[in-house]
Design the sequence.
DNA sequence: AATGAATGAGCCTTCATTCAT
DNA sequence: TATGAATGAAGGCTCATTCAT
């Protein structure tokens, strides 16, 4: 029953509209990979389309054949990272049967993803805040916002089964959880906290926080 | 016993070196106020020293009389915001006598500060991640990191009194808490969650998460 | 006797080298038509070969199968327009038997052509001045220059018959006339001057200007 | 009575809003002079702001301190040229007492101006047609249009005195005249027609064209 | 201390043209 | 013959910083 993804949200259509193949698709892949490397290493503002093209081994102009502008390229990078992480979470949470299992699975997924793609999460979250909104500025939700909404849904479902204290304002809790995960996780990476230690502590922290009080409170 | 500040940070010296007065101090004040307004409204990268000077009503060149560069100005803004928030927290936490009271006080302070200075926290946290590190890049800790360390100390103190589950990896918990506060708070502001609702939920959430398990677990 | 074309000039050979037919000719036609539409609507500098190809419904590369470069395409457009206008003039002037009739016919032709192909004349004349000359820059005469030379010849012929004041410097008059026609015509189009009004006034204006003075002068 | 300027029209205010002096004014002058040289020599599209700055002996950025963009700089060049020519015409027409004198004066002024500033008129007229209209595109009248309107006013005044055939559509005539002057003048410059010859012919041409028919026609 | 004109490296983007398929 | 992905020189413009006054 509890086997939904960590965050996400229906933006997939945009990314996957069509998966072209052949030479053009190849170029796009190289650009996107290069973009990821550079956005992660230098951040949005210190990465030029020119650098991405060079790193991708294509001409400067090719960049604009695949992305309307730098911003669109970054957004594509973010979408892709989000989708990958969603898959990771889906995988690790697949056979979770308890709240505890679900949370532990999610945390494990975040760590696993981050081990495979170091820095990607941070780059996506941090720069998203800062790529000066285009025309449709307000429409754009941060990754953290999307995750927050995802967790809110999950929490509400689980609360219906009596596994979460029903006195909570669910939306607040739903957004608090990705916040705590992200920040604790960032610290763990920076300070080399062993993965298991962090996951154990956080799982217990969240589970206890959510559990309905057993006795009078 | 529990009455320390939320976050802190020893950077005050830089800002407060001496509090000069007179014309020079006046100019600096105006610049700093203007900088705050603009950094909050447009973000670091979309605010030019020229804009700040103009908004402050001083000549373009005056900016560099008071700040070594744009980065230094932003850092001064962040330091000031942090210090103000610390004072707010100190104030609201002054007569807390319980863990619950301390947490509630902290949360109340964050909301109160944010009501007085809308957007300041977000600007300080978000852009801090993104102002391409100077030579000493790594030395610079994010506000969130500073707060995380502050909470870690606090948690450890409190744990010594038996109020916090001693099985936790304290540093992880210490960093998780500002993360959850920040994110839940951002959501509350964006979605107009009533302050009291958010504070209540978060206080209970955190308190329960920290409490040592009473029975066997 | 007076039934020569308005302007013209021997560039036709280039355009009409051979009139190939079949697939290749078809592509060229579509490109030329598209080019005309776009040059007229957006001007030379704001029309890209890519736009022309797209509008023509052929591949980007096909453009260079038919034109050496963008400049050559524009020149082909201009040649074609000139030739069309020449035909129009020939038609309207065919049975003119007097100076008055010839002038009136020419003016009628210009208006008729412009009604059929709005903006074409303007685009051809205006941009011609501005398509940065290739190697043979100076050799290229503006449409206006060609017309001026054409009129000069005509005027000289007519003067031989005593219909034009022989004291004029014919070349000056020959170039003045297309200048006045073009400009008055542009105004008529922009300000919706009725065709007949404009033609009447201009015919009288030119005829009187040319007529030898009857009395002592 | 007939001593008005050739073309013109009230745009002066924009140009002359304030005549600042000092270093800034000096820079603007140098830029404007350089711009004129380059626009005349290479045309609008083949002149880069960078080139203008270099020719003016100032930094690249200085250009944008004085002109919003390249287009604005060109417009300033055009305004200035127009104003200069107006003054030239005013000067040469100052003591004209007849229609003949007025026309001759105007023509002399155009030749004199062009001798002093070769190519300026052509650059201003030709490129004006081609600097892809900004937002207010349609509002912008070509120099030729402005002159045409000026002549129209003049012609109407003179017609009131019975010096011009009242059957003409004055606006058409008003626009025809600058057209004929410009084109004949261009030819004269290109083909080295002696100034006096051209002026004589054109004066007679225009005067006769305008004169009311004395006898039945 | 204050000013604001000046600077120029650097940024994002375009587009005429080429070339492998 | 036709295609359209690829190219990279070049363009217009910005902006953090300096410096003469």
Sequence:
């Amino acid at each position: 029953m509890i086997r939904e993804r960590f965050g996400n949200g229906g933006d997939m259509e945009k990314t996957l509209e069509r998966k072209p193949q052949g030479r053009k698709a190849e170029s796009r892949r190289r650009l996107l990979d290069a973009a990821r490397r550079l956005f992660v290493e230098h951040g949005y503002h210190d990465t030029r389309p020119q650098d991405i093209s060079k790193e991708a081994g294509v001409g400067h102009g090719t960049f604009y054949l695949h992305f309307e502008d730098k911003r669109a390229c970054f957004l594509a990078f973010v979408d892709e990272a989000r989708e990958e992480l969603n898959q990771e979470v889906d995988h690790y949470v697949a056979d979770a049967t308890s709240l505890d299992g679900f949370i532990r699975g999610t945390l494990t997924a975040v760590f696993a993803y981050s081990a495979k793609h170091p820095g990607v999460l941070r780059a996506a979250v941090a720069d998203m805040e800062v790529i000066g909104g285009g025309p449709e500025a307000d429409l754009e939700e941060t990754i953290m916002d999307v995750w927050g909404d995802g967790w809110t849904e999950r929490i509400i479902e689980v609360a219906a089964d009596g596994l979460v204290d029903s006195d909570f304002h669910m939306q607040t809790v739903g957004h608090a959880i990705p916040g705590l995960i992200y920040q604790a996780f960032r610290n763990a990476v920076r300070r080399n906290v062993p993965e298991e230690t962090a996951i154990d502590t956080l799982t217990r922290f969240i589970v206890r926080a959510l559990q309905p009080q057993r006795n009078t409170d």
Remarks:
- Residues 54 and 60 of chain D are 7 Å apart (CA to CA).
- Residues 1-18 of chain D have pLDDT under 50 and may be disordered.
- Chain D is about 70% helix and 0% strand.
- The longest helix of chain D spans residues 70-93.
